[in-house]
TrEMBL record:
<dbReference type="InterPro" id="IPR003593">
    <property type="entry name" value="AAA+_ATPase"/>
</dbReference>
<feature type="domain" description="ABC transporter">
    <location>
        <begin position="5"/>
        <end position="226"/>
    </location>
</feature>
<dbReference type="GO" id="GO:0016887">
    <property type="term" value="F:ATP hydrolysis activity"/>
</dbReference>
<dbReference type="GO" id="GO:0005524">
    <property type="term" value="F:ATP binding"/>
</dbReference>
<dbReference type="InterPro" id="IPR017871">
    <property type="entry name" value="ABC_transporter-like_CS"/>
</dbReference>
<dbReference type="InterPro" id="IPR003439">
    <property type="entry name" value="ABC_transporter-like_ATP-bd"/>
</dbReference>
<dbReference type="GO" id="GO:0022857">
    <property type="term" value="F:transmembrane transporter activity"/>
</dbReference>
<keyword id="KW-0547">Nucleotide-binding</keyword>
<dbReference type="InterPro" id="IPR015854">
    <property type="entry name" value="ABC_transpr_LolD-like"/>
</dbReference>
<dbReference type="Pfam" id="PF00005">
    <property type="entry name" value="ABC_tran"/>
</dbReference>
<keyword id="KW-0067">ATP-binding</keyword>
<dbReference type="InterPro" id="IPR027417">
    <property type="entry name" value="P-loop_NTPase"/>
</dbReference>
<dbReference type="GO" id="GO:0005886">
    <property type="term" value="C:plasma membrane"/>
</dbReference>
<protein>
    <submittedName>
        <fullName>ATP-binding cassette domain-containing protein</fullName>
    </submittedName>
</protein>
């Protein structure tokens, strides 16, 4: 199986502060993996490194074919076109409706043809079970619906992997389960890999999958220690 993420002896820093040392893990195409750990343990920092918001200053890494240790600033948009990023706070543009939100992202990724954009927007909204909300403003949607749009947006460019940073962090328990099931459904149907950071240990116990654990400055693959 081909790796979509590969980190080898990676040292992850926030400014001058070393957050995680000697990180090693590989995620293959189509895998579903949790990234867990307490608040401040470094989950977001791992994801930020993978989408090149933080430079990988020591060690090596490859994401969707791009070498993080040799990445040029000009390559960052191209790397991000191959990954989908989902945030805890949804990060929809509040001043425009859902259709315009999605068009904005497609244009930013280089899409031009209006008809192709419409087709893709309808496809991703169907994938997240929200086919009739094009004209709605973000504030007219529930938190769970806004996160579904966030996932639809992340899927627009058919990424090899979804990186999700506490995607259920702003949702109640019931909605969290729905969103998790949606990630699992997308993962199974479209074989998009998923790396989901969470500190919701209850959710992980109910729906166990391969788990990477950030603790005391290290990342441990819990499935290897079983
Ligand atoms: N922008 C920043 N500048 C400086 N230090 C930061 C920054 N962001 C995070 N840190 C520090 O890096 C460490 C790891 O934080 P990180 O956000 O990666 O953890 P986390 O596990 O994702 O926590 P949370 O669940 O609260 O988001 C913490 O000590 C934090 O204070």
């Amino acid at each position: 199986m081909e790796p979509v993420i590969f980190l080898q002896n990676a040292y992850i820093y926030q400014r001058d502060q070393l957050v995680l040392s000697a990180v090693n893990f590989t995620i293959h195409k189509g895998e579903f993996v949790y990234l867990i750990g307490r608040t401040g343990s470094g989950k977001s920092s791992v994801l930020q490194t993978l989408y090149a918001d933080l430079w990988l200053e020591k060690g090596s890494g490859v994401v969707a074919g791009y070498e993080l240790h040799a990445l040029k600033r000009s390559q960052i948009p191209y790397l991000r076109r191959n990954i989908g990023i989902v945030f805890q706070d949804f990060q929809l543009l509040g001043d425009r409706n859902i259709e315009k939100n999605l068009i904005f992202y497609l244009k930013a990724m280089g899409w031009k043809d209006k008809e192709e954009m419409n087709v893709r927007i309808n496809e991703v909204l169907t994938l997240v079970n929200l086919p009739h909300i094009l004209a709605k403003m973000p504030h007219q949607l529930s938190g769970g619906e806004q996160q579904r749009v966030g996932i639809a947006r992340a899927l627009l460019n058919q990424p090899q992997i979804l990186l999700a940073d506490e995607p259920t962090g702003n949702l109640d328990a019931e909605m969290s389960v729905e969103i998790l099931k949606l990630f699992m459904d997308i993962n199974e149907k479209s074989k998009t890999a998923v790396l989901m950071a969470t500190h919701d240990f209850e959710l992980i116990e109910r729906y166990p999958r391969r788990t990477l654990y950030c603790d005391k400055g290290l990342v441990q693959d819990l499935s290897e220690s079983l």
